[in-house]
Specification:
The chain has a twelve-stranded antiparallel β-sheet, with helices on one face. Strands 10-11-18-15-14-13 form a six-stranded antiparallel β-sheet, with helices on one face. It is elongated. It has 546 residues and is α+β, with helices and mostly antiparallel strands. The protein contains twelve helices and 27 strands.
């Protein structure tokens, strides 16, 4: 215990006071972002972990016995005060900022968490509770303001698909980790309950969109380097359910709040994850925020409350999960960048972490694309098309990507893939050229939409029978539209090129069920409702944000 306190004290010195001194700045400036400097704000993960250390080992909660030394405990609180004194203003806890995230959605919530956490720590300590902040407030008022703000934020996201950066392979862990802190350590019982409901709903949506512990639905802010094997939860499914793998590289510090929390999945959520196909294949619909209400300014995005623009559609069948974000054809600047950045659509198979097939443009001159594609989907049939400038930004060449360990055969313009399910993919016209070093196939005509067709193995006698069915399926294209007769009851999927017309299935526009934010056999929420029902049959769980 003494050695742990010594190491923590050294870490505090190196990551707090020493950083400020290195810049010739007073302690109050520790961890502030500086233009042109490669530094990270104190609110990014560091405060999450330090607050959790006090929560676990500081004697304030019954989770673990008191193990922090008095000096280390004081140094942590002093560092929080040094940062919060100049960075936390009660005026910024205005509920209007719920739809005006600072920096990005996960950065904003981490920053708010740091203000809230500082107030929680300082109000508990007579050495700090009466010290004024730069705006003249004290910790009691700060705690009340940020607690109220967090309740409003969580309620807003609870009623709108949970997040803008939905299932990001990079940022989901940072976003969720602070909600775990609210759930485990908030002194306000209502905030604890709201946070637990939020986390449970996140895992319920994940449970119906995963296969073997790997999320298969559509994603935002999924960076190209993570696309083949990145997961928004890494090792957590294995820890909670035993599903999937637990790779050594998955142990990121951001998972420590989840790993050290007493929270466990409710039985009904775990049942969904373990046996999603007890009644066969199914579709799940989710509405999400993402349209910009105004331009990015004052380091803040401005989100419209519109829930009609982004429809996430996921189809889950034995052996695969396919997902698409179905959005209207809008210029890039009509979207909040945190919504349109690196959108991912495609299909994930159950063979391995990299068992997936998808079509997306590579980023050009950077690591990100914005509003790069339009997608349509019905059951296991998907069509994806690259959007040109000015509708998109940062888009390089469109390519089809196939997991390197999946068996594939090229035949009559199609790439056929065999794994836990069967998949076929091709550009509608123009053909492709293979890049074997990247397991990708670059489109020779960048205007061409890409078809991805997935089918459960049990639907066909053999891989050859699946190939024959795909080759026989009617595929038509002209200057205005593409149509493909999808397999397995998907219907005739029509995709309109260079048009604002919504894609159709059997001559009807693809739209989420009217009047619902969440709609699936397992997760249901009416539009405008603060109640979600999870489960099916007689075993259900109701989550409320009253």
């Amino acid at each position: 215990m003494d050695e742990a306190n010594r190491l923590l004290g050294t870490a505090l010195e190196r990551t707090g006071f020493a950083v400020a001194a290195a810049y010739g700045a007073p302690v109050q400036d520790a961890y502030r972002s500086r233009p042109g400097a490669e530094t990270v704000d104190f609110s990014f993960l560091v405060s999450t972990l330090l607050f959790r250390i006090v929560g676990l080992f500081g004697g304030e909660t019954p989770l673990v016995e008191h193990r922090l030394s008095g000096q280390v405990d004081e140094d942590i609180r002093r560092l929080f005060f040094a940062w919060a004194q100049g960075n936390c203003r009660i005026s910024e806890a205005d509920p209007v900022n719920v739809l005006r995230p600072w920096g990005s959605e996960n950065l904003d919530l981490q920053r708010v968490h740091t203000c809230w956490a500082a107030a929680e720590l300082l109000e508990q300590d007579q050495r700090f509770r009466n010290k004024p902040y730069s705006d003249g407030s004290h910790s009691s008022a700060q705690r009340a303001a940020w607690t109220a703000y967090l309740k409003a934020f969580l309620r807003s996201r609870f009623m709108s698909g949970l997040s803008v950066e939905f299932f990001s392979t990079t940022y989901s862990k940072y976003f969720l980790s602070v909600v775990y802190n609210f759930m485990d350590f908030a002194t306000d019982p209502a905030l604890r309950e709201s946070s637990e409901n939020f986390i449970t709903l996140w895992w319920a949506i994940w449970a119906e969109e995963q296969i073997g512990g790997v999320h298969g639905g559509s994603k935002a802010r999924a960076y190209p380097r993570h696309l083949l094997a990145g997961r928004p939860t890494d090792n957590l499914p294995w820890l909670y359910t035993g599903l999937g793998e637990c790779p050594r590289e998955a142990w990121h510090p951001a998972y420590l709040p989840m790993v050290t929390s007493p929270y466990r999945l409710p039985g009904v959520v775990e049942d969904i994850a373990r046996n999603p196909h007890r009644y066969g294949s199914f579709a799940a619909w989710t509405r999400n925020l993402g349209v910009a209400a105004a331009k990015f300014s004052d380091a803040r995005y401005s989100l419209s409350s519109d829930l009609t623009a982004i429809t996430r559609y996921t189809f889950s069948a034995p052996g695969y999960v396919m997902g698409a974000s179905i959005v209207p054809r809008l210029p890039a600047d009509r979207w909040a960048a945190i919504s349109s950045q690196n959108r991912w659509n495609g299909v994930v198979l159950g063979d391995s972490l990299d068992a997936r097939v998808y079509a997306t443009p590579a980023p050009k001159g950077g690591r990100s694309t914005y509003n790069a594609v339009l997608a349509a989907q019905s059951r296991g049939t998907q069509i994806v098309q690259r959007l040109p400038s000015p509708f998109s930004r940062g888009t390089g060449d469109m390519a089809i990507w196939v997991g390197p360990r999946l068996r594939r055969i090229e035949r009559e313009g199609w790439i056929f893939v065999e794994g836990s399910a069967y998949v076929a993919t091709r550009p509608v016209f123009g053909g492709y050229v293979a890049n074997p070093t990247e397991s990708s196939f670059r489109l020779l005509d960048q205007r061409s939409p890409v078809i991805i067709q997935a089918s459960a193995r049990l639907d066909y006698e053999s891989f050859e029978a699946f190939q024959a069915a795909v080759l026989a399926a009617p595929l038509r294209a002209d200057a205005g539209e593409v149509s493909f007769q999808g397999l397995g009851g998907a219907g005739r999927l029509r995709f309109f090129r260079d048009s604002d017309r919504r894609p159709e299935v059997d001559n009807k526009p693809i739209e989420a069920p009217a009047g619902w934010v969440l709609s699936s056999p397992f997760v249901r929420q009416e539009l405008g409702s603060s109640m979600v029902e999870i489960g099916e049959g007689s075993r259900t769980l109701q989550l409320r944000f009253d």
